[in-house]
Amino acid sequence: MKIREFFLLTMLLVGPAASTLPAAAGPPNVVMIYADDMGYADLGVQGAVGYTTPNLDRMAAEGMRFTDFYVAAPVCSASRAALMTGCYPARVSITGALPPKCRTGLNPQETTIAEMLKEKGYSTGMMGKWHLGDHPDLLPVKQGFDEYLGLPYSNDMWPENPNARKNSYPPLPLIDGAAAVDPEVSAEDQATLTTRYAERAVQFIGAHKAGPFFLYLAPSMPHVPLFVSDKFKGKTAGGLYGDVISEIDWAVGQVFAALKEHGLDENTLVIFASDNGPWSIFGNHAGSAKPFRESKGTCWEGGIRVPCLMRWPGKIPAASVCLEMAGTIDILPTVAALTGAALPAAVLDGKDIGPLLRGVPGAVTPHESLLFYYGNNELQALRSGPWKLILPHTYRTIVSVGADGLTGKHGQAKTGLELYQLAEDPSETKNVAAENPQIVAKLSAMAQAAREEIGDNLTKTNGRAQRPAAAVTW
Ligand code: MG
């Protein structure tokens, strides 16, 4: 008898101590953490100033940090639609940030990542901001999540928003399952959200430790108005913003502690990213997109390139850095490949980036290009290799910043057809279109092909493969 066979036989006869059993031999658990409006430079490992992010930094040390990771749109609902479906928001017809009592939302005909994993036998839970339709028929529990605790949309869509017209928003509900557990969230309640979501996430992990599970934790912070619990208030030199990020970092630490406690570390992929760049017009209540140009609400790098970490001990090499282009649209197809779940039948835009995650030597991005939409379904930019083509459009820029939760002033700026070489010029300072007419022509052709497929309102093009959003009545 060979040694290995002897060992296996012994295991069969005697059995290992329960505590040494691998927690789950089946498909991996998946945890997706998606912060709201956190900037590229808001991670300690990416230069955060005035506060630290020890748990996120440890995640980077134990996993992979992506330097060129993109959301599909620099605004909440469109960005989240891409994450949930693996499609460009233009394809599934979700643009901008959906308002309360919205008559649209993510079409239930679309397959969300939660629905895909449920088919594979996963338990699914979501805590945090949904923002893909607040109608009861469009909430997370109708889109593949077994359980849900969170705000149906942004925390500033709230009667007490100091920057909104008085009473322009209905009461903001905190929803548990399908019902409002707190129909009128107050400022005191807002301060409990980050911890409350984290506690529910920890509970969910414990309840489903036998696996497999999919946990989607989407903090409402650091979207303004900023709120933090007492245990983090005034604790950093980064002001309220630093305190808020510290609490999010703590929440990430709680998730990791729960995974460790239940022996799930080795069988769980954890992903952390932000839904768009920082809301810089809020000054000291916003993060930093340094070294990138502009911020949330633009398709300059500051709006679309976000922090991203992935950790899966034994599968993703520790302390690794991925310089290849990837994005939130890739998460659904990558998770499908890792878990063996069947891909949705509909056409997707994302690709499996498993080889990048595993650190396969020579692995490159599977994308010839990534598209960036903003406004009313406007294709404003695309990236291919190191090149970024900016399509002629009007964008908002910051004239003056606000402070302490009050907004500043936006202005409008115009750009023509411009080209940037991001490897040499990540801050998009030097338009090199004139020197590179062939690159401009090549990327322009890619833009045209994209328009014909999924549409573009800048050129009034209807895409032949756009799918409708939901239509609901209240
Ligand atoms: Mg956001």
Helix share, percent = 25-40%
* CATH topology call of the largest domain: Alkaline Phosphatase, subunit A
Q: Count up the domains.
A: 2
The average pLDDT value, as a whole number, equals 95
Tell me the name of the CATH class of the largest domain.
Alpha Beta
Largest sheet: 10 strands, mixed
Describe this structure in words.
The chain is α/β, with parallel strands linked by helices and 474 residues long. The chain folds into 2 domains: 3-358, Alkaline Phosphatase, subunit A, CATH 3.40.720.10; 370-471, Arylsulfatase, C-terminal domain (2-Layer Sandwich). Helices cover 25% and strands 19% of the residues. The chain contains 12 helices and 20 strands. The chain has helices at 3-14, 54-62, 76-85, 89-92, 113-119, 187-190, 193-207, 239-261, 301-304, 331-339, 354-357, 437-454; strands at 29-35, 64-66, 69-70, 104-105, 123-128, 147-150, 174-176, 179-182, 213-218, 268-274, 308-311, 320-322, 326-327, 370-374, 378-384, 387-390, 393-400, 409-415, 418-421, 470-471. A 10-stranded mixed β-sheet has the order 8-7-6-5-9-1-10-11-2-12, sandwiched between helices. The longest helix is centred in the middle third of the chain and has 23 residues, at 239-261. Mean pLDDT is 95; it is low at 1-24. The protein binds magnesium ion. Residues 36-37, 76, 223, 275-276 line the site of magnesium ion.
